[in-house]
Structures are given as C-alpha cells and as structure tokens.
Write a structure and sequence with these properties.
This protein is mainly β. The protein has one domain. It is built from three helices and 22 strands. The strands form two sheets. It has an 18-stranded antiparallel barrel. A two-stranded antiparallel ribbon has the order 18-19. A hairpin with a 5-residue loop joins strand 8 and strand 9.
C-alpha cells in the first residue's frame, strides 16, 4: 500500500513524527527527543528506521506503451541523530541511503543517499534561530506525468527566526535556496533530456504562524514566495515565480484522527508574459482515522507541476482518493484504496508541417488507481501483507494511454 514499509516499527513511528514538513516548536521537539529516544549513546539520541518499498512484480516498470515487466524492490534504511546541548541548543543529523533493485534489467539498479544537518537554538527563552542544510537524492516517480523511476537530487539550505510563546504559539520567517538536478535521461515522448528541461534553482522565503489548537495539534497560516531559474539557456523561457498562501490544520500523531489538512491560493507567473499562468486553489491533505475495527483514509492534492515535455511549461495536477481498512480480527486486516485525478495542460504545443509552425492544442490526462490488500499482525502495530495495485492513465492525445499492475508484499507499522 502507500504507507511506509518499515521494520523496527516503534522506532520508525517516532522518527517519522520528528521529521514533519511544518515547523515544530523548540520545547515540543526537545521534549520528544529526550522522552522518546529508544537508543542513547552518550549525549546522542538516535532514531533508526528501515523500510522496504515496491517489493514484488511490476508488469510495466517504465510505465509506457511498450509494457515490460520485472521484479523490483527498494531498500531504505535511515537514521536521525539528535544532540541536545545545555537546554538551549538542539543539533541534528540524518542519513538515508536507498538501493533500488531490478531482477532482469540490471542496468536500472541504483544507489542513492540523502543527508541533512540542522540546528535549533533557543534565545532569551522566546526566540528560536534555526538552520538546515540538505542533500537529498532519490529514485522515484516524480508525478503522474512521469511514470518511470528517475533520479533527482536536491542540494539546499534554509534558515529561520521564530518567536514562541509559553503556549507553543509560533510566529516566524524562513528563507531558502535549493538547486534541483535530474539524471540525463532521454524520454521517448520528449525531444530533450530531463536534465536539460528541468534542472533549476529555487529560492525564496515564507512567513509562518502556528497556534496550538489542541495537544500536539496546530492550526497554521503560511505565506510563501518562490523564484524559479532554469540552468540551461535553452530552458530560460521556463523561468517563473510563484506566490501562495496556505491555511492548515495538523492533527496529533497517534490521535483518532491524524494527518494534515491544508488548502490555499496560488499564483504562478512565467517571466514570459506570452506563456499561460495559473491563479487559483491548491492544497495537500492526507488524513487517517480509526473507529473501532474500521480505519478510514482521505487524500486530496492540487498544484502546478513543471512538465518534463519540451512543449509544455507546466500542468495542473488534481488528485483525490480514499481508502478503508476492515479489522476482521485482532490479527487480520483487509485494505482497499482508490485514487483518481487529472493533469490539465494550459498550453501544449505541437508542430504542424502544413501550417509550418506550432499549434496550441488542448490536452488533459486522467489517471486512476485501485489497490487491495490483506495484512496479518506480527507484533505490536507491525504487520505483514500482500497488495495488488492497478493503475490506468489515459490522455486526450492518441497513443499516450498507459496501464500498470503490481503485486507484492508489504510491511506496515499502522496495524
């Protein structure tokens, strides 16, 4: 299923809770590091985890019209280490190597590694100064547009200053700068390699406000501005900027309802005025709930995504989905998930030899996924299961339809 496939489950739950994308108050994070560390090495608090993903048979590993099957699997150990110093300084470091395995197409096997270093400092009992540096490399499916696994790498840093009250309300500003690169891979449906089309720099800043609505749950507001500068001169026409505002609610980890609910307004503007822009709703929501023997899931996403196609700048991706888990007994669970969405291209150029020029035609892709599984409890909240997935991707353009089926094993720590 979509949930992480993790061994050492109890440790992984804590490690996941400590690495949220939204701001964590200094006192809250400090107390969690001190109180929930399962491994203590001198002054260090260590949170290891180990996950496996996509272990099974994929009948279309490239997700293209020429379906080719293979046995796959991803091994992903990780560790996050904290060093609390003097009650006012929290140092952190993490590392996450990954190995992607293919049984038949050995040339697709790959190794990647990600690491971060961070610092939080409490000043005058109310102000928090923070900084992080990141180098993250992954081999993954980047979006609904690009179904095959590709390697991308992010190198960047962020720094911020926050004011915190005794009730964990926080107000602050953050600046960031990232460089994003992709492997030099030529896709069959694009005239340029990924690196030439998508390699770019991103920088900007954001203002954030967090109010503790209930224990470890927060209401928040975020305003963000980002500049995008593409590295290849032939892709300079892609340079753009975006401004967005988000209102959200982060539910506590371990509560009956948990996850993140976020919606907002986004304005995306290419530097070239002749290119189409976007103004409107965006959001990212992932909620889980447990009521007795029934578990429910809900997902929603909407955002602008840079297209890897040389003929298109971006598309608007919409996705909605949900799932249900039925706990037949204390040790047996049935799962089902359904997701569907669209990719809307405001501009898609094709060359017309008759008109001797480019024509802007409409394009809309649709994608849907069914997933079903069965899991057996091993111990605690850890379970072992079998899953079957079926994905279908259709396009308004002829010859772009795709299908994939996958069957494999998974481990879950959310039993």
């Amino acid at each position: 299923m979509r949930r992480p496939l993790v061994l050492f489950a109890a440790l992984a739950v804590v490690a996941t809770s400590l690495s949220g994308q939204t701001y964590r108050g200094f006192r809250s994070e400090w107390d969690e590091v001190i109180g929930k560390a399962r491994i203590i090495l001198g002054p260090l608090r260590v949170f290891p985890s180990f996950s496996i993903r996509n272990v099974g048979y994929d009948d279309n590993v490239n997700f293209d019209a020429k379906a080719k099957g293979d046995y796959t699997g991803t091994i992903s150990p990780a560790v996050k280490v904290y060093w609390p110093v003097g009650g006012t300084i929290l140092l952190s470091a993490s590392e996450n190597p990954e190995y992607n395995y293919y049984a038949r197409e050995s040339f697709r096997r790959s190794f990647s590694n990600s690491y971060t270093f961070g610092m939080k400092t409490l000043l005058l009992s109310r102000f928090v100064l923070l900084g992080n540096t990141t180098r993250a490399a992954h081999r993954r499916r980047l979006s609904s547009e690009l179904g095959t696994l590709v390697t991308d790498e992010l190198r960047g840093f962020d720094a911020g200053l926050f004011f915190e009250t005794a009730r964990q309300t926080s107000l602050g500003v953050t600046v960031f700068r990232n460089e994003i690169g992709y492997e030099n891979l030529q896709m069959e449906d694009s005239s340029l390699p990924l690196s030439q089309v998508l390699n770019r720099k991103e920088w900007g800043g954001k203002a954030e406000f967090y109010y503790q609505a209930f224990t470890e749950g927060f209401f928040y507001l975020v305003g963000e501005y980002t500049e995008f500068e593409f590295k290849n001169p032939e892709s300079a026409w892609r340079n753009a900027s975006a401004i967005q505002g988000t209102i959200g609610l982060r539910f506590p980890v371990g509560a009956a309802i948990r996850g993140n609910l976020a919606f907002g307004y986004k304005r995306f503007r290419p530097n070239l005025e002749a290119r189409p822009s976007y103004s409107g709703l965006f959001g990212k929501t992932d909620l889980n709930a447990r009521f007795g023997r029934i578990g429910l899931r809900a997902r929603y996403g909407r955002d602008t995504i840079f297209s890897y196609l040389a003929e298109a700048l971006f598309f608007v991706e919409n996705a909605v989905g949900g799932g249900v888990s039925l706990y037949l007994t204390d040790f047996l669970r049935l799962d089902y998930d359904y997701n569907r969405g669209t990719s809307d291209y405001p501009e898609f150029l094709v060359f017309d030899p008759v008109a001797d020029g480019s024509l802007n035609i409409g394009r809309k892709d649709r994608h849907e996924t069914h997933s079903a599984g069965i899991a057996v409890r091993l111990f605690g909240t850890t379970g072992l299961g079998l899953t079957w997935n079926s994905a279908l991707w259709t396009s308004s353009l002829p010859g772009w339809d795709r299908r994939r089926r996958f069957i494999g094993a998974f481990l879950t720590y959310q039993f």
